[in-house]
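> call design_seq(struct)
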């Protein structure tokens, strides 16, 4: 498990892994932008496809509609990269609740050997207008047995989407289990949130960690509007003497969510929770450290969209050295 701090560490690691691929490259992202970073990753994917590798890219239909350009699409497809859109926008003038069920997770794997999990989209986080210095965000580079569930969920979501879009695919809906060799000495678990069997897995892992915390809870969340159970768990932790610190977005990005989050401040502060707002640039992190032992990095915010609607993916790591790095 290697912690990657921001796009400056994540994108070179991802491009390097793609260039070293031997069989296949899979990429999932909410946003795929036509900017410097998008073109660098596109070039790496195209090089892999030209070497004869299987290259699959799954982007969210909403994110693709707003960021993915025709030029990037054409370059990928014309070079034998298979591009698929999750819930493509077919009637943007109509609003139905299912349109909020987006693919918000950010995953990649190469040859089932190395994977990337985190909160970083394929978009330049340095040269984005009105955002200097870059957004604060994190990702993980992973090797070892954790690749098994990552590869499986990427295959399954791909197969489901080809099925509902009436496309042919050689990816099975129920992929055969793979085996992976142990790597390193860290203990970790990969968790997803979907709208079937795993609707509450990420939230439940957060709640279990908060309820068993003994010394310290540090949570950094770009979009923070937790439900009553989550708020009660934080308050109970603070009242039993745990140092609870929330690092939240200080800049206004989404007006309604910003002021909704602030409406919770009084209840939390009065219970002894410390709240710090980050104003220097945009905070896009979705991470936490509990008692210097347990840490999580992923795509899931602590808000209704991530915890109740979107597909998300987080890794929970139990390792004091890693937790110290992230803290």
């Amino acid at each position: 498990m290697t912690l990657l701090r921001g796009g400056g560490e994540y994108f070179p690691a991802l491009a390097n892994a793609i260039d070293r691929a031997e069989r296949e490259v899979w990429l999932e992202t909410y946003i795929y932008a036509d900017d410097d970073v998008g073109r660098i990753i596109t070039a790496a994917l195209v090089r892999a496809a030209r070497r004869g590798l299987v290259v699959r890219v799954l982007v969210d239909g909403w994110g693709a509609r707003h960021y993915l350009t025709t030029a990037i699409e054409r370059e990928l497809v014309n070079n034998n990269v298979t591009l698929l859109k999750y819930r493509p926008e077919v009637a943007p003038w109509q609003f139905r609740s299912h349109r909020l069920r987006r693919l918000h997770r950010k995953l990649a794997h190469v040859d089932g050997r190395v994977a990337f999990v985190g909160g970083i989209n394929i978009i330049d986080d340095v040269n984005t207008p009105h955002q200097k210095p870059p957004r604060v965000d994190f990702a993980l580079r992973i090797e070892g047995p954790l690749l098994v569930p990552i590869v499986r969920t990427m295959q399954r979501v791909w197969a489901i989407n080809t099925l509902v879009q009436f496309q042919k695919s050689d990816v099975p809906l129920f992929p055969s289990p793979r085996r992976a060799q142990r790597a390193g000495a860290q203990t970790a678990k990969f968790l997803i949130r979907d709208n079937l069997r795993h609707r509450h897995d990420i939230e439940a892992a957060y709640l279990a960690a908060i309820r068993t915390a003994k010394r310290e809870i540090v949570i950094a969340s770009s979009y923070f509007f937790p439900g009553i159970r989550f708020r009660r768990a934080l308050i109970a932790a603070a009242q039993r003497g745990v140092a609870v610190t929330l690092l939240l977005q200080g800049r206004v990005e989404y007006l309604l969510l910003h002021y909704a989050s602030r409406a919770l401040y009084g209840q939390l502060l009065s219970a002894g929770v410390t709240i710090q707002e980050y104003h220097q640039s945009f905070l896009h992190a979705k991470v936490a450290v509990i008692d210097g032992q347990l840490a999580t990095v992923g795509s899931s915010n602590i808000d209704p969209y991530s915890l109740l609607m979107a597909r998300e993916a987080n890794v929970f790591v139990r390792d004091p050295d890693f937790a110290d790095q992230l803290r």
